Amino acid sequence: MPPRIPVTEDQIDRVVSEFYARVRSHPALGAVFAAHVDDWPTHEEKIGRFWRNALLLQRCYDGNPMQVHRAAGNVKSQHFPVWLSLFDAVLDQELPQPLAQAWSALAHRIGRGLSYGLPSEQGAPAMPYLGEAWVKKNPLPATDDR
Ligand code: HEM
After folding, report:
1. Ligand 1 binding pocket, CB closer than 6 Å
2. Which of 5, 21, 71, 104 matches a 20 to 30 Å C-alpha distance to 88?
């Protein structure tokens, strides 16, 4: 199967490693991750498989990020814009523009899906979680990628 976005495995590894290096020292995100991840090489290896699955359509990741984020307890919908802007900065640094833009659009789309149903900082859900079936029946407009 041809890749969805033609990045190399090497580029994926560089983006993942630079991104989590910045996450670890980030004033807001660092503590959220520190509560769950102490083996960073294992985490990064898993995230690398997640992105190879999403970008290159290799079938190498079969986890459930939605469930993992909900179970984490300290991952809030407000973290997503922060996470995504940090991710965009790394994409811009590591990749040629067209690739950075395409990967960014996909990350924003995935992030929107993952943030549904997570509690907001105030404790109330930012949006009611309507379930996978509803999300499938009501796709987001393709023009609203970023
Ligand atoms: C587009 C945005 C995001 C993507 C694509 C993403 C993807 C993932 C994936 C694939 C995992 C591994 C799940 C597994 O164990 O199989 C994960 C774990 C995790 N994510 Fe995210 N994530 C995103 C946003 C966030 C945000 C905004 C936060 C909050 C700061 C966050 C915090 C975490 C934490 C703490 C874990 C580790 C949980 C654990 O190992 O117990 N993520 N993420």
Report:
1. 29, 32-33, 36-37, 46-47, 50, 63, 65, 68-69, 72, 75, 79-80, 83, 107, 110-111, 114
2. 71
